[in-house]
Amino acid sequence: MDKLARLRSEVPGLDDICDGGLIAGSSYIVQGRPGAGKTILANQIAFAQARQGHKVLYITLLAESHDRLFQSLSALSFYDASRLGKDLTYLSLFRTLREKGLDALVALLRSELARTQASILVLDGLLNARESSETNLDIKTFVAELQGHAAFTGCTVLFLTSARIDESSPEHTMVDGVLHLEENLFGSRTVRHIRVAKSRGSRALSGLHLYEISERGIAVFPRLEAALARPSTQETVGLTKVATGTGGLDERLGGGLPAASMSVVVGPAGSGKTTFGIGYLNCATVERPAVHFGFYETPERLYAKAKALGLDLQTLVEKKALCMLWRPLTENLLDKLAYELLDAVRTTRAERLFIDGLAGFERATVDPHRMVEFFAALSNELRAIGVTTVCTWETKELSGPWRTNPSPEILSQIDNVIEMRHQAAGGPLRRSITVLKVRDSLFDTSTAEVQISGLGDGLHVTGTMSTARGAMGDDASGR
Amino acid sequence: MANLVVVDDEPLVTDFLKFLLQDLGHVVHAASNGADGLQTIQRIRPSLVVTDFMMPVSSGVDLARALSGDDDFRRIPIVLCSAAPHAIDPADRALFAAILQKPYPPYRLIELVTLHVERGGAGLRGQP
């Protein structure tokens, strides 16, 4: 089967959800309410096409002026005024449509396409064309004629409309694809989603994909569990172990954490999870770099915290042995976080990754039902890339049972589980680490007492806590 | 008072220009593209033309070229208003009495119209 020629939209993520891109010579409806970003999307594609050496014809059927359009586009980085009138022609056919009707509009569009030799046609305001048609048959004829002409000349057509076009409408049935942009309120935040509602001849990524509008235009973040339903590369399972950075713990783990595995450090606030992470990251070298992906402390605060432990993370960052990514727990887009994380790991070729913590992803999502599938896709991909990941998971209780807290579906996808606790009752503060699970490995099941040491290794095991179960509260094993 | 022709594919623009220039006491005729504009100009024989660049059928530059090739009309000053003035070939710039980049302050256009209409439109071609 011949591979269809596709347009490179240069809209991040868009081609990925469209099975590689919009098909050249096909026609698409881009629908969404005013403010959803249809015009930005179409112009972003148009300017990309112009940069790639194609001619663009942009027709408005709206009463809105082009000056205003250019003014708002000029705030966006893809906009290049020097291409106007050369590679991109903007025409208003509002008057033709209003005064002469659809037949005259098609005739004029045909001659303009020939005159400009455009390979992409954007028709902004299909709703207006629909209003001026007497019947559905008129609009059907209009779309069919334009589509036929465009397909014949290899021109791709984008019909932009703010009308709610349902699946039975003539436009919907005739075009090759429909992109639906929507903006919804979740609590007090607004979230934008794009959906490929129809895609003839292409296996588009189904469902809702998050997108954002920034000064770079639109960026789409394909739903991770759909985009990475299977990891991008095959996982290689080795027997290599990776040091935790906590003195005396590797022996208890059977030599360290299995390479390319996913570990979680569970415990209440103040139990030492971040300190554990600092020790873990401190093992990074220029040859074997690490990534820190955190939602809480800024890099500066982590440097200070590390310094107090006698560790120097800042120098590791300067040597490019460590990459620090801080994403404050404000408003985040779930899939964007995942792509930033994966991108950092891939580009730095990191071998160790510390995520502080998993709850940051949970807070970012507007759809909690996705979390299990999302985490499966993310963790499978991280394993396949070969990075050894340690995440933190904060339990709600300051002490006591945690086993009901991280969801069992997520815990079952984690290879290694390490529990951290602290207790001050009846004496000085005592910290403990218990290894609960290690993938394909024997490990020490006793509870280790740990101290925050000044020995330059963050946490340090000082011995086995013989009365740990009684002293530390509920039996974590459930027995 | 003078006869003027304004040419633009956007009705918002021609409506505004009509309002602006009629207020100065001129009679304003509108056309929606270069070809339509040429016919209107040939019929009206205006003192000045204000035209857009990017238009269907034929552009503002096409219109200016057609007028410059006709002895009866080559002396009519043409003010080009465009969002994309850099797309105009340097050789074609001389076809216009002035080039304004959209969006422009209305007083700039009023100044240009006043200047060129009062001069009678003679021998102005090619001046900035």
Automatic annotation (TrEMBL), chain A:
Transmembrane segments: none annotated. Residues 5-234, 240-475 form the KaiC domain. It is an enzyme of class 2 (transferase). Gene3D superfamilies: P-loop containing nucleotide triphosphate hydrolases (3.40.50.300). GO terms for molecular function: ATP binding; hydrolase activity; protein serine/threonine kinase activity. It holds the Pfam family ATPase. Keywords: Hydrolase, Kinase, Phosphoprotein, Repeat, Serine/threonine-protein kinase, Transferase. It comes from the Bacteria. Its EC number is 2.7.11.1. This is non-specific serine/threonine protein kinase. It comes from Caballeronia zhejiangensis.
TrEMBL record, chain B:
It comes from Caballeronia zhejiangensis. InterPro entries: Bact_response_regulator (IPR050595), CheY-like_superfamily (IPR011006), Sig_transdc_resp-reg_receiver (IPR001789). Keywords: Kinase, Phosphoprotein, Transferase. It holds the Pfam family Response_reg. PANTHER family: RESPONSE REGULATORY DOMAIN-CONTAINING PROTEIN (PTHR44591:SF3), STRESS RESPONSE REGULATOR PROTEIN 1 (PTHR44591). GO terms for molecular function: kinase activity. SUPFAM superfamilies: CheY-like. This is Histidine kinase. Residues 3-117 form the Response regulatory domain. The lineage of its organism: Bacteria, Pseudomonadati, Pseudomonadota, Betaproteobacteria, Burkholderiales. The modification 4-aspartylphosphate is found at residue 52. CDD domains: REC.
